[in-house]
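Before a computer can learn anything about folding, someone has to put a protein's shape into writing. The three-dimensional part falls to structure tokens, numbers that each stand for a local backbone shape. The protein below has been through that process, and both of its lines are reproduced in full.
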Amino acid sequence: MTQPTHDLDPARSARELYGVELRRQRQLAGLSLDRLSDIVNYSKTHLHGVETGERLPLPPISEKLDVAFGTGELFQGLWGTVKREHTPRRFDHCLELEARAARIQAFNASLVPGLLQTPAYMRALFAGGEAGITREEIDSLAAARLGRQEILRRDCPPDFWWILGEAALRQVVGSPTVMREQLAALLPMVNTRHTTIQVAPFEAEACAPMSGTLILLTLPDNSTTVYQEGSGYGEIFDARETVTQRVRQYDRKKACVLSPRESAALIEATLEKYKPCESPRT
């Protein structure tokens, strides 16, 4: 049974304003969540999450809601505000599942994923991500991310499988020195008992196109939850049909990318390009 949105305060955040307005418009239209789900072709779970402020309204739902309710560009305008709002909660549930997962599979198109980042790499990312961020804030963010990496050193760690876009190897974060250290840290993780890293070369993109970040988190009970992130949004999916689609998408990507051995060779070749040139002998 759908729970009412008791605690939403439209003055507190754009996300909560969006949820309040969605509920209001749905009730004015006399629609149940089931009926609205059929109209906009989004799951009832997702709609309920948006109404309660627990989920971001994943595009293009705003356009579909405006059409369904005849509200012009109301929800599209609200979505623009939500995107600009700082919403760190979007990743919280993913972190909770990560800590309990038996298997973690991820695709990152242009950045090294957090669980594989060196301290220098993550600090460079944080420093470049937000204007005016202080050293203390960077230290706090880096400490939290390093804490997540403890999962790699458990006695019985999860089974990890990462696919990195070639851009993650070539996009300079921080400096060539930072990148050299980062790529060197990837190599021992490419093919171990608990970790696999594959690289998706640029030419493989047409085979199984993917962008942004996709994380598949499988718990010990074999249930899988999807976290997907792109520019300006991040969203959790647990509906069976969506999870099945994303798992198949990931499996297809695996079939199109380099083997672990080939991936290690590409990482090593790219690492060489970040090595400093020797000074000419006199």
Remarks:
- Residues 240-256 form the longest helix (17 residues).
- Confidence is low (pLDDT under 50) at residues 1-5.
- The longest strand covers residues 159-165.
- The CA atoms of residues 9 and 30 lie 23 Å apart.
